[in-house]
Structure formats: structure tokens, C-alpha cells
Amino acid sequence: MAVVLYRNATYSVSFLVQAIDHGDIALPDIQRPFVWQATKVRSLFDSMYKGFPVGFLLFWETDADPAARQIGSAQKVPRYLIVDGQQRLTSLYAVMKGKEVLREDYTKTRIRIAFRPSDETFAVTDAAIEKDPEFIPDISVMWTTPNIRQTVREFLHRLESRREIDVEERDRIEDRLHRVHELSNYVFNVTELARSVDEERVAEIFVRINSEGVTLNQADFILTLMSVFWEKGRRELEDFSRLSKKPELDTASPFNWYIQPQPPQLLRVTVALAFRRAVLKNVYTLLRGRDLASGSLSPQGRQAQFARLEEAQKHVLNLTHWQEFLLCLERAGFRGSKMITSDNAILYSYAMWLFGRVHYQVPVRRLRELIARWFFMTHMTSRYSGSFETQAERDFALLDAVASGDAEGFCAVVDKTINDTLTNDFWTIRLPNDLATSASKSPALMAYIAALNIHDAPALLSRIGVRTRLDPAITAKKGLERHHLFPRKHLRQNLKVTETGKINQIANMALVEWHTNIAISDKAPSVYWPEEVAEVGLSATELARQSYLHALPEGWIEMDYPEFLAARRGLMAQVARDAFALLADHAYQPEYPAPGDPGPALKRTEVFGATLAHLIDEGLLSGGARLVHLGTETTAIVTSEGKIELDGEIFDSPSGAAGVATGGGKVNGWEFWHAETEDSLTLLADLREELVRRMTSD
Predict the structure, then answer these.
(1) Are 379 and 443 in contact (CB under 8 A)?
(2) 158 versus 26: which is more confidently predicted?
(3) 71: number of Cβ within 10 Å
């Protein structure tokens, strides 16, 4: 005889709404927050009004005791979870109760649906509908006000103040409004899964009946259990996720430039700290209170496991822990999300930080150095890609022999793991091989860029630091660019290298400022390199340091292209290796400008990323050109360095010189000065716009 996994039932909308209110039916975010557009909610009510079928609901009976209460709360544990139909029930509940819903960005909003009885039209409320007397602008009033007759009368009174209504139309309108009110009696077919059905079977059933291709995973089920037994903990995860999306003024927040963690991601860190597990299937079983050996359920066992989860989550969401950990990423040379190829590397490195700080009491300074090295290693090697759960549990297991509070033992295990991974063969063979790609965001490339940050390297042929130009808080129209050391056109036309993958090899790219990239253009290395070195005026010491940091082989401008790529990959790996060694040096302290602060290397005179020096570099202006103010006939001279000489005084910017010319006022110098060109006077602002036009069309 077949095992009965479910039973069928029918419930009215009013019964379902009341059951949600009483806590008998949970609205856990098993499919995550409310994602329906208001137009779908409108269509749902329209279909119900017309008597169309709108699908059935799938519930799952919980294994909680009838009188059970949530952890740390007087709120009762619900009898049923909604597996399929959450969006429909959320829509009905929110509209009929006038409640707000939680959106995907964790903001709250009202769903407002309007109804026009004259032609039985449902619509999403907007400003025009709000003023239109033909509409009830928010049908929530049909169920939230105590007297439906009074609501109908008020609508008719408002409509009659605008136009005449005969008796026949009045009766028709009343009937249609009462018909909307009676949607609370609409009956849903419900399939109720038995409490004995495990989560894998539930997920399989859900996938088979769901037409939108949604899948459920183990994190969804654990979050659902939290919604049932520990709603407060679930909301804490959501609040942390929401606050990580944007900075708060004058208050601490989890906002950062590396990751905007979602609740399932934070849950992984919590589970790691609480149970030293990454495979969530086993954790789900534990949280249900099921003994892994006997399979029996125990409410006491469930409470004990949730207590462990609650204690771990306090540490995971602790802002001091979180912000101290983020300093490890900065120390490791990573400046923002554009450099991150693996969120898992962040999450499980955070777990290791928490192990060290919470379980083993490692001093913060030492832990920061250790976890910076750990993150650099895990990110560079893609340690938590593929079967990342298995790898994470292997890493956790390495700590099993370390006693609680043994800081030295913890550090020794982590150090040994790093050293066993980053062997000499890794640095000399694997990493150069990993760099043999054209992928624009490979872990190997990000390790090299992080190394440039650690070394505080300037951009190639520049004195402005890579650190500064990679500021995550500044979205520059033009900033740091990846330049082909062997330009594309030169490779195609002169060296007959036509494959895009070979042309765009990582080893053929260097970080330069955008105006340098323009100046180099498509010239051969043997042509542009001596010109640019002379133009920038780098000393022999500066040139040697740049050649080392940017991994330029000796005599590279005359090298065969494949030989150059192979040699540079080895040098890039060596730069990364040297930077990684710095992370273990107690004296190494990165000095990054605060996000959004350009630092001393960037002048405030750069408007749209352009200065007079950039105009000179592009040939739009020449050193020695005369500047004229047409109103006063005041004149000045542009120096070869892109500055302005006025009455024997040197000014860094057009505005500075214009301010003095007008007696100390605040003047936009780009709109003040005209430059003498070969055949006319041209406003500096127009020259700048031409420069920007060229940049954006490049």
C-alpha cells in the first residue's frame, strides 16, 4: 500500500487570512521576499472576481508541538508552512489587511489596487486614479473598514458629486462592490504535505508542480525553520543584509565595498561557527531536532541546536567583528567588489576570523595579519569554488585538535595550511599558468592587482598610485585602464597575431591612466616606450621600480610576443609572491585613503577627469599657448607642465588664475579663459568637451 504523503482540503480566503493572523499558517520567505509586481496582484484579483481558477496552494505540516512557542518569544509556532503559493497569499493578505510587504531590497511598501465598478476594471493605483471618482483607489477599505455598506455609500456619494447616477446604475455599482467584498469567500484548493515528508521530498514536489522554474535549496529550508521556531533571528539576518546595501550617516552599519551579503550567505557563516559544518543538509536535520544516528525527533534537541545557532549568530552579526574582518581584506590588497571573484572566499574567511577571535581568543592585530594571508590564499587559489562545502568542512576539521582558547594552536594550523598550499611550485608553476588567460576577472589577475596595492605601486608611467585609482567609492568617467603593452593594431597588422584570446592575454595588460593609454595608442613598444618614459620624466630609480612592479622583462620592447608573455607571467607571479610575504611582516601597515577621498595624488582641479596637462597630451593645447579673457583682455600663458602663468605667478588650475584676475572672486576658469589656437580663440570648456568626446568614443 502506498504511503500517504498528503491530503487535499479547501479553504476560503478569509479563513486563510485569519489563520495567518492567528499564527497557524506561516508566511516564511521560502521563496525569499515578495517579488510580484503590482500588476500581477491586480491580475490575481481580476481573475478571482471573474471566477477564474488561480492555482492551488501547497502547505507543509510542521513537526512542532501544538502549544510550542518560538525561541525567546510568546509567538506560537505555526502549524503549516506555505511551500507553494506564498506570493498569492502574501498579495491577498497584504491587500485585504492593508499591510506592508517586504521587497527584495528589504524595503517595505503597500500594495494598492484600485477598482472601477462602472466597467469592472482592476488597476494599480497611481496619482490619476487617486483623483478619479470613478475608482475606489484602494480596495483594502473593502475589508479593513467595519461597515461595508458605509464604504459603498461613501463611494456613491463621492461619485454623485461629480455626475448623475440613475437608480439602475446605482444598483449595478452596489452589486459590483459587494462582489469585490465577497472575494474573501473565494475558495482555494490546498494540498497539505504530512509532517513526515522530509525536505528533499518537499523540494522535489515543489519543483514538479512549480511552473516558474523556481528551485529550493537547503538554505531556504533552514531559513524557513528559523521563520517557524526563531522568527527574530531570521529578521536579524534580513536587517543586516538590508543595512549592508547603503551607508548610514553618523551611525555604525555593516555597509562595505566588498559584499552585500544575503541572508543565506550570512546563514552559512553562522552555521560554520555554530556547528563547524558547511553541508547544510546535515545542519537542517540537526535543527529539526532529529538525531543523526537514530532519526528520532526531539523538541529538546531542537531547542539545544537553535541555542547554539543563536549564540553563533550574535558573533556573526556583531559589527565590531565584521568591520575588523573587513580590514583584513584591505590589508590583503583588495579595495572593493570589482576585485572579488568569489563571495565564498569572503564568507569562509570571515568564519575563520570568528573561529580565531571567538573560540581561540587570538589577539586582533595578529589575527588581522593571519586572516589577510588566509583570504589572499583562498581567493587566489579558488579554494572555495566547485565543491566548496566539502573543502570548507575539511578546513574546519583541521581545528578539531586545537583546544578552545589555544591561540597559538589556531595560528599554527592556519599558517601550516597556507604554507602547504602556497608551495614553491605554486608560485613558479601554477600561478604563471593561471595567468595564461584572457579572462578579465580571473583570481590570478586579482591577486596580482592586490599585490600592486600591497606594494603601493604607481600606475605604469605615472606617479599616481593604483590604490588611489581603485578607490571603490569613486566612479570615474575615466580613470585607470588596462592597456595592451603590445597594442592590438600593432599585433594584428605587424606581428600577424589575430586571435582575440592571444591579444587580450593578462600578461599583455598593464594598469595605466586613461590619458597615457591615449598617448600610447597603437604604436609599437619600441616606439612608444622611450617616448613615454622621456615625457613622464621618470628617474632611473623610479623606472627600475616600475619595471619590477609592472613585471616588465629586461629588453621586453624588442622581445618576440610569445616569449614576452611567458616571461611576464613569471614576473607577475613573483610580484604577487613578494607582496604576499609582506603580509606576514608586522611592520607592514597599508595606508589607504578613506573611500571617497582622492588623497593628495589627485588634484581638485581635475574636472570630468581632465586637466590642462591632459589637453596638452591630446594635442588640443600646446605649452606656451596664450589665454585671453575677452571681457577684460587679461592674458596668461599655459606652461609646458599644464599650469598657468599670470603676472609672473604660477597657478595649478584655470579657476585659480581666473580668481586672481577678477580680484579674488570664485570663478569657473574653464568658462573664463579662451585659448589662442592656430586660427581662432577657443573657450577652455569647449576644448575640455572635445577631450571628453574623444575619450567616450575611444
Answers:
(1) yes
(2) 158
(3) 18
Q: Contact, 114 vs 136, CB < 8 A?
A: yes
Residue whose entry in the numeric block shows the C-alpha cell 584591505: 330
Which is it for the CA torsion 504, 537, 476, 259, positive or negative?
A: positive
3-state secondary structure (DSSP) of residue 611 = coil
Instruction: Using alpha carbons, list the distances in angstroms from residue 388 to 279, 313, 461.
Output: 9, 21, 40
Query: Which residues does 609 contact at the CB level (< 8 Å), separation at least 6?
Result: 476, 477, 478, 479, 514, 692, 695
User: Terminal CA-to-CA distance of the chain, rounded, Å?
Assistant: 73
Residue listed under C-alpha cell 619595471: 547
Structure-block grid coordinates of residue 271: 552555521
SS3 364: helix
Contact 258, 68 (CB under 8 A): no
Neighbouring-strand partners of residue 541: none
Q: Cα-Cα-Cα-Cα dihedral of 384, 389, 395, 397, to 10°?
A: 180
* Residue 619 vs residues 477, 642, 690: alpha-carbon distances, Å: 20, 12, 11
Tell me which residue has cell 598593464.
510
Burial class (CB in 10 A: 0-12, 13-18, 19+), 611: buried
Which is more confidently placed, 110 or 686? 110
513 and 462 in contact (C-beta within 8 Å)? yes
C-alpha dihedral over 346, 350, 352, 353, to 10 degrees? 130
Distance CA 678, CA 672 (A): 20
Please report where in the chains the cell 592674458 appears, as a residue.
635
Distances (CA, A) of 101 to 36, 104, 109: 10, 10, 6
**Residues forming beta bridges with residue 676, ordered by sequence position:** 681
Return the SS3 of 692. helix
Map 152-187 to HEC letters: HHHHHHHHHCCCCCCHHHHHHHHHHHHHHHHHHHCE
Cα(626)–Cα(645) distance, rounded to whole angstroms? Answer: 10
Strand ranges (DSSP E) for 239-379? none
| Lowest model confidence (mean pLDDT) among 39-53, 75-89, 567-581, 594-608 | 594-608
CA distance 671 to 251: 40
Chain CA centroid to CA 355, Å:
25
Residue 627: strand, helix, or coil? strand
Distance CA(452)–CA(183), nearest Å, equals 65
Digit-coded pLDDT (tens) for 300-328: 788 889 999 999 999 999 999 999 999 99
Query: Among candidates 224, 223, 341, 230, which has minimal Cα distance to 271?
Result: 223
What does the block give as the cell for 597?
577621498
Task: Map grid coordinates 573664463 to a residue.
Answer: 672
Q: pTM of the full predicted structure?
A: 0.70
Q: What is the mean pLDDT of residues 67-78?
A: 59
Cα distances from 108 to residues 17, 22, 93, 94, 563, in angstroms, run 20, 22, 15, 11, 59
Task: Output DSSP code: residue 610.
Answer: B
Q: Can you state the angle between helices 263-275 and 231-243, rounded to 10 degrees?
A: 120
> Average of pLDDT values for 270-285?
89
φ/ψ (deg, to 5) at 123: -150, 160
- Helix/strand/coil for 41: helix
Torsion sign (Cα): 559, 562, 563, 569: positive
Q: Is 50 helix (H, G, I), strand (E, B) or coil?
A: coil
In DSSP terms, 638 is beta-bridged to 644
d(CA 34, CA 28): 11
Residue 100: beta bridge partners?
A: 110
